[in-house]
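Dear colleague,

Following up on yesterday's call, I've attached the two folding results inline so they're easy to grep. Please treat them as preliminary; we haven't cross-checked anything against experimental data yet. The first protein's sequence and C-alpha cells come first.
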Amino acid sequence: DHLETEEVPERYIQPGAIRKAEQATGAIAVANISAGEQILANKITIIAENLSSIVPIGYRAVAINLDADSAVGDFLKPGDVVDILGTFEETGKASYTATLIQSVRVVAVNDSFTSVKKTEEKGFQGRSSFGSAVVLALEPSDAEIVTFAENKGKLKLALRNPGDDKMASLRTTSFGNILRNQQREAVKPAP
C-alpha cells in the first residue's frame, strides 16, 4: 500500500536491503522507515507465531488494556506510532494530564489477545464497548513508567504519523492551565 519500488544501481543498494517487494508483503515495521528509504530486512517483520520475535532488540513488549476511546477507536493497528498520555487524580489536588512518552511503536492490537466485551453500567442500556489489549514496544525504563501510570491513572493513546519523529516540548495540563489559557485568549483583541 505504501511501498514503492525503484531501480537502484547495485553499488547503491544498502547491505541488508530487501530486493523484492514480495519480501515486504504483509510485514510490519519494527523501526521507523522514512519515505524513499531502502527497506532493510531488520526493520520489518512478518507477524510471527510468537510476539517476542517482533519486539525490537533492547525493547520490551508491554500490554495495556484500553477502552475503545482510549485506544483511538478501532483505527489502531500494529506498526502504528502513538504518544502515551496519562490522566491522574491526587487526593486533595486537582486532576491533571501529561504526555508520558512520545513516538511509541504498536506491535500488536488484540492479535494475540481476546477482545474484551463488557456492558457499560452507565449510559445507554445494553450499549457495549470493546476493550483493546494494545502491546507497545518500550525501552525498559519507559515500561516501568507505563506500568506505574496504568496502575495510578487512566492512559490514552494519541495516534501520530509514522514519519513524524519530532519530539514536542509539552507541559502538564490541568483545569487551572486550561482556564488561564482561556482567559488569555479572551483578552486578546480580534484580528
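Below is the second protein, in the same order (sequence, then structure):
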Amino acid sequence: PLLLLWAEYRPARWPAARVVEAVLLLAATIVVSRIVFGGWGGVRPLSFLCIPVVLWASFRFGQLEAAICTVIMSILAVRGTLSGGGVLAGGQNEGLLLLQAFMGVLAVCGLVVGALMREQERVTEGLEHRLLEAQALAHLGSWDWDIVRNEVWWSDEMCRIYDVEPGTRLTIEDFLTRVHPDDRERVRAIV
C-alpha cells in the first residue's frame, strides 16, 4: 500500500502547525513502537498503544501518512521481536507470525479510516460546490460570523449582491452598514 499511495502523492505545502504535528506524530510513532516492541515497556501487553497513533495519522493526515506510520512501526517491531524485546518476543517464528498478523490488522484499520476521511472531504467539497452554484442561480447569499474574532465570511454570491470583492475581510459592523437603515436596529438586536 505504501508504494501505491506514494505513487499518487501530490505534494502540498503544509503550514508550520501541520509540520509540527507531523514531527510529533513521527516521535509518537517511534516512542510507542519502542515501548511496545522494543522492550521499553517490559513484557506488559501494551500493543493497543499502536492503534491511537495510526488513527491519529489517518484522521489528521491521510492514508499515505498512516501507511508510513505503520511501516515505521513494522520495522521497529521486527527489530524488537528479533532481538527478544517487546510483547511478541518468544519463539522467533511464532513472534514474527503474531507480529505480521497484528501489523496487518493495524495497517488495514489505518488505510480504511484514511480512505473514509478522503471520501468525506470529497463529498464535503462537492456539497460546498453545489451550495455555491445554487446560491448563484437563486441570487441568494450566505454569511457566517465568527464572534470571537469579529470576522464575517460571505459567500461569493453574497459578495456579488453587495458589490464586495470576494475574500474581503469584513466585520459585523461592515455587514450592518449594508443593511437598510430602517432595518438596521432590528437586525442588530437579532444578531
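For the second protein, one point worth flagging: Helices lie at 2-7, 16-37, 50-60, 63-82, 92-138, 156-161, 172-177, 181-190.

Best wishes,
A.L.
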